[in-house]
Amino acid sequence: MKLPQTIVFATNNSHKLQEARDILKDRCNVLSLSEINCNDDIPETAPTLEGNALLKARWVKERYGYDCFADDTGLEVAALDGAPGVKSARYAACCGESSDHDSQANMRVLLDNLKGITERSAQFRTVIALISDGKEFTFEGKVKGEILEFPAGNDGFGYDPVFRPEGQTLTFAEMSAGQKNSMSHRRRALDAMLAELE
Ligand code: IMP
Asked: Exposed end of the chain (fewer CB within 10 Å): N or C?
């Protein structure tokens, strides 16, 4: 599959954009939502990561005409049957504890739900949906690890302070951005997309 000259990444998150631009550099021009004047609150109402990534990519293709890719990520904890999963951004809000995207509240609910549980394996999973040349594709990236009992580290975002990747001594929040991005779930999903594009 060939890359178009210009592609939209359905996000305005500057960290994600930088990561995608670094990986796709020289190959194509990556535009953010604001750069195509898309200020829509794109609904993420699907029951799966795949579904949400496709919803976002289709929204951009259908309304703005650009080839596009979109991502959705979830933290999947084995002892909680895969929760918070697709609800990762709004885990605490789902229990009526706070508003969406409240990382501190999300971590508190997660640690509460794991209290007394010793089997703490978990994974971050990112799905990227790509619409290019009239076709749809999905790619996946995963990082396995475990949920600590207490947060450690101040960098990163979301659940980073409580997630330690397999084989590492540091949580994602204790790593430099470069170190985290070199092994992240998003990085692996972007690499999978790149491999398909070559
Ligand atoms: P999104 O699909 O990238 O917006 O991710 C959904 C939610 O998953 C975020 O609001 C975070 O709570 C969590 N999340 C996604 N990626 C990461 C990460 O790299 N570290 C920690 N939490 C993350």
From this structure: C
